[in-house]
Amino acid sequence: MLRIVVMNPKGGSGKTTLSTNLASYFSRCGEVTTLMDLDPQGSSVFWAHKRPENASEIQLVDAHNSPHNVTRSWAIQPPRNTEALILDTPARPDLTNLSPLLREASAILIPVLPSEFDLHAVVNTVQHLRRILPSQKNIALIINRTTKSSEFKKIADKLSKQLNLPVIAHLRDTRNYTQAASRGLGVFEMDGSHYENEKTDVLKIAEWCEAKRPSESERTIKRMNPDTIALASIA
Ligand SMILES: Nc1ncnc2c1ncn2[C@@H]1O[C@H](COP(=O)(O)OP(=O)(O)OP(=O)(O)O)[C@@H](O)[C@H]1O
Ligand SMILES: [Mg+2]
Description:
- 43% of the residues lie in helices and 17% in strands.
- It is an alpha/beta fold.
């Protein structure tokens, strides 16, 4: 199972936008896809409930509202048939509780807004990840809502070098994301040539994650620890 954790303790950096677009992409490609919303705000849940009936299926796990007829620990497990699991995390999470989940991730994506404050704040997050992970090979930055300003591009490039992390995409600041989201869709599912740039960007991110998918042998050994999700849901 490919497990993608989208995180950034800063609010409004694009975690849900990225999570929902990746879920839409993988399900559209025929992967059995599960979107797990670990944020009590429930934005990914809200998006998934808007999804048209004829859209490709995305299994949803709402970590904060489990059905009453099943035990909570069972309800918040991703379905066993999941091939691509996307985890949307809250702003200001309890990093201690989130750490086991981060350790079990195939890929960790950090969307960052192109502001000096946001770029600076990400340094602390990356330092935390360095402390808890054996390697940082599966972490990537995504600069979200980019403007044409070359000044921020320079700052982002400098940060990427300083942190020794790749910037795998620069997402444009465009209504294309909000328009798709308002229909419970991702940009990949939208018609019209004006979505081409966004499709290319989402594809780039998905392909980077795909390269981190565990091999067949790792897959059998690395079953997800049930306590990990339970702990992450109170992060
Ligand atoms: N590339 C983009 N272009 C235009 N609008 C965007 C873009 N990315 C995100 N947004 C908008 O910015 C707002 C915040 O994005 P989003 O909800 O994805 O962030 P978040 O990190 O999940 O926020 P929170 O920390 O509150 O969970 C939303 O209204 C979203 O539609
Ligand atoms: Mg969100």
